[in-house]
């Protein structure tokens, strides 16, 4: 299936474009298997009617014409460090670019989120269009972008520097074609999506008492077909076993924090498997550990960081309970078997919480995203994942996460890469989804 033909050509004749659009949508519809997810007819009709509009066509074509600028901005943004809790410089750059694109009100809030507000004709709702500013890489990481063939290599170039380019390009296209929406649209670069950032940007935006956001379209990862409509929740902990420590020979018999942690990992692994082997997918992982001063010293502490995930909050709570029990069992066993000295202590600190969130494919925002995707000859692929959409979905607020476009690989590694393989198509899909969600207002005849 070829992609929507008119999106690869400049706007020449409105009647020709309408004809090509109708034919392509009909072909795409026929290609859909009855077993594949497909939007209700009303949403498909809405997407079809929207792409018929001359001003929307101008915006879609402008996205393609912006490719050189988008590439240059991607390289510049990628090379600005943005570790969790250190996104400030990248936030300032995005603020500058949003203003340059035509937004008059662009601010950075108390936690570092960049918010650019585009007023609607009615202003009775707020639709947020967001991408996270942060990457997983520490401040000292070399972020120099290099090119090999058609691929650009650099830490964070896909996740999520490209996401920022997607929302910026959609804004530029809307401004170029002077598109209007009923709802206000907030273009957001949010902090704290990765790692121990713990969705702090989204938690601030959707906190009690904040200005209300009625729906969210986040941009983060995946192929053009990907629509995340449910949230994989996670609990993250830092566990510390602590004791007096001592010489490995002279103080032998003391309770050993490393030995306790070894017991804890083994017990947790053994007891967690029955939970993960039944029901909704559930996972666990010991991601980092450390402690100790030398090979011939009993350590005074041992620490580890543990991640547990599930799309079911019930299962997440279940494996969390197994984890808590295993940690206490390991502590009790090591203390019982010590020959001398004081008992070890145990500290279990929650360092991350992402709520699991059950999605609803019948929800209008999901249907609109599916219809927009289908309009480009692409079969929608509904998924659950751990994204910024977790937070609003868990609160009953309509939210999805969509693709940033192109192809990428080696995410979260120094050899991360991104390739512009029809990357504009995801941006065009994002534009159509945003316009239908925010209520497109037809231009005056």
Portion of residues in beta strands equals: 15-25%
Mind summarizing the main beta sheet? Answer: 8 strands, mixed
Structural class: alpha+beta
Q: Which strand order do you get reading across the main beta sheet?
A: 1-2-7-3-8-17-9-16
Q: For the CA atoms, what is the radius of gyration?
A: 25 Å
Q: Which regions contain 5 or more consecutive residues with pLDDT less than 50? A: 1-35
What does this structure look like?
- It is a single chain.
- This protein has 445 residues and is α+β, with helices and mostly antiparallel strands.
- The chain has 12 helices and 20 strands.
- The chain has an 8-stranded mixed sheet with strand order 1-2-7-3-8-17-9-16. A 4-stranded antiparallel sheet has the order 4-5-19-18, covered by helices on one side.
- Strand 4 and strand 5 form a beta hairpin.
- Helix 2 packs across helix 10, helix 3 packs across helix 6 and helix 4 (67-78) packs across helix 6.
């Amino acid at each position: 299936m070829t992609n929507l033909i008119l999106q690869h050509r400049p706007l020449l004749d409105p009647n020709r474009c309408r004809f090509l659009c109708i034919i392509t949508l009909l072909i795409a519809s026929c290609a859909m298997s009855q077993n594949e997810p497909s939007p209700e007819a009303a949403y498909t009709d809405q997407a079809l009617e929207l792409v018929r509009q001359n001003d929307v066509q101008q915006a879609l074509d402008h996205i393609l014409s912006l490719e050189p600028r988008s590439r240059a901005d991607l390289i510049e943004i990628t090379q600005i460090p943005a570790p969790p809790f250190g996104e400030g410089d990248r936030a300032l750059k995005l603020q500058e670019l949003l203003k340059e694109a035509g937004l008059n009100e662009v601010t950075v809030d108390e936690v570092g989120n960049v918010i650019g507000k585009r007023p609607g004709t009615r202003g009775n709702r707020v639709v947020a269009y967001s991408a996270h500013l942060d990457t997983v890489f520490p401040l000292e990481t070399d972020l120099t972008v290099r090119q090999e063939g058609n691929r650009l290599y650099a830490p964070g170039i896909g996740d999520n520097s490209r996401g920022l380019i997607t929302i910026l390009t959609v804004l530029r296209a809307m401004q170029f074609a002077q598109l209007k929406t009923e709802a206000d649209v907030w273009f957001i670069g949010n902090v704290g999506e990765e790692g121990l950032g713990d969705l702090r940007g989204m938690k601030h935006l959707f906190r009690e008492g904040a200005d209300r956001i009625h729906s969210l379209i986040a941009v983060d990862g995946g192929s053009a077909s990907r629509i995340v409509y449910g949230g994989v929740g996670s609990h993250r902990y830092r566990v510390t076993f602590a004791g007096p420590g001592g010489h490995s020979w002279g103080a032998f018999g003391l309770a050993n924090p490393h030995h306790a942690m070894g017991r804890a990992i083994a017990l947790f692994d053994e007891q967690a498997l029955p939970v993960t082997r039944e029901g909704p997918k559930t996972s666990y992982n010991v991601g980092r550990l450390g402690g100790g001063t030398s090979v011939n010293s009993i350590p005074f502490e041992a620490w580890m960081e543990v991640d547990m995930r599930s799309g079911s909050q019930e299962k997440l709570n279940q494996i969390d309970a197994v984890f808590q029990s295993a940690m206490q069992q390991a502590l009790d066993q090591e203390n019982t078997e010590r020959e001398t000295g004081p008992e070890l202590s145990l500290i279990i600190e929650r360092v991350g919480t992402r709520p699991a969130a059950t999605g609803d494919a019948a929800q209008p925002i999901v249907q609109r995203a599916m219809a927009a995707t289908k309009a480009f000859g692409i079969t929608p692929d509904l998924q659950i994942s751990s994204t910024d959409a977790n937070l609003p979905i868990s609160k009953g607020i309509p939210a999805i996460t969509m693709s940033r476009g192109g192809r990428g690989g080696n995410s979260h590694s120094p050899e991360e890469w991104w390739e512009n393989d029809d990357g504009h198509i995801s941006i065009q899909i994002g534009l159509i989804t945003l316009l239908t969600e925010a209520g497109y207002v037809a231009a005056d005849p």
